[in-house]
UniProtKB/TrEMBL annotation:
Keyword set includes ATP-binding: yes
Gene source species: Oceanobacillus luteolus
UniProt name for this protein: ATP-binding cassette domain-containing protein
Family: Belongs to the ABC transporter superfamily.
InterPro entries, sorted: AAA+_ATPase, ABC_transporter-like_ATP-bd, ABC_transporter-like_CS, DrrA1/2-like_C, P-loop_NTPase
Pfam families: ABC_tran (PF00005), DrrA1-3_C (PF13732)
Amino acid sequence: MNLLSATSLKKTYKDYTAVRGVDFSLTSGKCIALIGPNGAGKTTILRILAGLLKPTEGKIRFSGQPANADLRKFIGYLPQYPVFPSWMTAKEFLIFSGELAYLSKKEAEERAEKLVEEVGIKDAWNKPIGGYSGGMKQRLGIAQAIIHSPKLLLLDEPVSSLDPIGRREVLTLLEKLKEEMTILFSTHILNDAEEVCDDLLLLHKGEIIEAGSILELRKKYQTSVIELEFQDNPEQYLEKLRALPSGTSSYLDRNTIKIPAADISKVRYEVLKAATEENWPLVEFHLNRASLEEMFMKAVKK
Ligand SMILES: Nc1ncnc2c1ncn2[C@@H]1O[C@H](COP(=O)(O)OP(=O)(O)OP(=O)(O)O)[C@@H](O)[C@H]1O
């Protein structure tokens, strides 16, 4: 089910169009990655969805809500560079954020207590935020973004500036949160998207050039390569492989023979059949799948 649909969304800053009339929808309960290089328009889209920026053209429709509804209570947002009052404790900050989101003092206190537990900063919640690590601040930022239990959580590059430990902490938290809400997070780090997300929106120069599930897109752009290593003299097997119906484009890359494979099972069957029948001195048979990075490069060049 669609949680949110954006139609012909466009944003022009003075004379520069950062988002060029994009259409997309977010499926309820999914984690969706908004992927694109620097300047693609990710922050602009997230700020429009969060209600912080008015689109030049286009509409956003949230499931079950009238066209011009105020969506703030359904949406939580963590900006790319959140600023925290360093003198406040996490407890004070979260209760304050909860009250800003129209929770009563009691509700805000209860919610804050539950959230510090959930994001894993309970031990430090009575300490000033100024002493927190990057990962702790980001987790606090996420707690603040979901203080009002939104249906959709928008995160702008939530892990890009973190060290590996902080990055891991936040990705693990997102894995957990995606059970409870729909998440849209922007990143230019494709591995992060692949790790936690189900769906992708590929943004390039203000346009969505691909959208769909990671699995579907992988299939579409898949150019897996089967790699074979021989004990010695790979050249003599190169000819044999090129003679197989699906091995015609085999090539030698240093000591490894590589076979680009659109249909992996067919190539695998033919190669292994020949290797067994003729007792080839194979030392390695490896399937190398196209990375999301390669997929993105292909989509951009289309
Ligand atoms: N307030 C503004 N005024 C003019 N141009 C802007 C403004 N904000 C963004 N832009 C331009 O719009 C384009 C898209 O910016 P945006 O921040 O949405 O991209 P992004 O994909 O989030 O990039 P990054 O990964 O660098 O944050 C960029 O070329 C940027 O320079």
